[in-house]
Amino acid sequence: LIGRLMFELPEEMGLIAVAVRQTQGKGRGGNVWLSPVGCALSTLHISIPLHSNLGQRIPFIQHLVSLAVVEAVRSIPGYEDIDLRVKWPNDIYYSDLMKLGGVLVNSTLIETTFHILIGFGFNVNNSNPTICINDLIAKFNKEEGTELKPLSPDCLIARTVTVLERLIEIFQEKGPNGVLPQYYKYWIHSGKQVRLRGEEGPLAWIVGIDDYGYLQVHEEGKGVESVHPDGNSFDMLRNLIVPK
């Protein structure tokens, strides 16, 4: 629906579709995303000039959206310590234990403007099929003796889009260095060791992400190299970065 509408609307008009349920949710690489009632589900259209900081680094958008989801919760007074985090390149995690959301970005370049469709979905009030944000809040209340209220999907979609708008403005003004300190504050990979290309592959350490949003790993004796998300999968359970 948005793919058909996005070229018909005035450039300054925002466009978002919000779903209560999805029956054919899609993830990266053809994966299926299960979307019961209780998820925050939406597709957002934005336009990015090609000749801008973000236009020259389009892969960064998925990182900004993942960060915006986490910030949408952790920027609320009292909710700063809810252990919601980002996993490269496009997942939302509870600590480094369990996925509860993801981001899918499609871009179309027309003349000098990128038309970006951002699909994001994350569990807010549904404990299945994994875990949800309100489970984390209830757990935090029990452990810390607090009385934080559950959050709603609508509230978190609105907050995510608002935070994303601010992150894009910062990125356009300052480039990657304007947002990376906040991104690293919430990501799950700092200092983690991985194996490249297979279970018997060489050991490497995750360093960070480069100016174009690709993962940087340091393999002993070989220096730092970048790993592209479209050609690689990061298997958290086995700490592997493997070609798809």
Automatic annotation (TrEMBL):
GO terms for molecular function: biotin--[biotin carboxyl-carrier protein] ligase activity. GO terms for cellular component: cytoplasm. InterPro entries: aa-tRNA-synth_II/BPL/LPL, Biotin_CoA_COase_ligase, BPL_C, BPL_LPL_catalytic. Keywords: Ligase. Gene3D superfamilies: Bira Bifunctional Protein, Domain 2. Residues 1-172 form the BPL/LPL catalytic domain. Pfam families: BPL_C (PF02237), BPL_LplA_LipB (PF03099). Belongs to the biotin--protein ligase family. This is BPL1 ligase. It comes from Struthidea cinerea. The lineage of its organism: Eukaryota, Metazoa, Chordata, Craniata, Vertebrata. The gene is Hlcs.
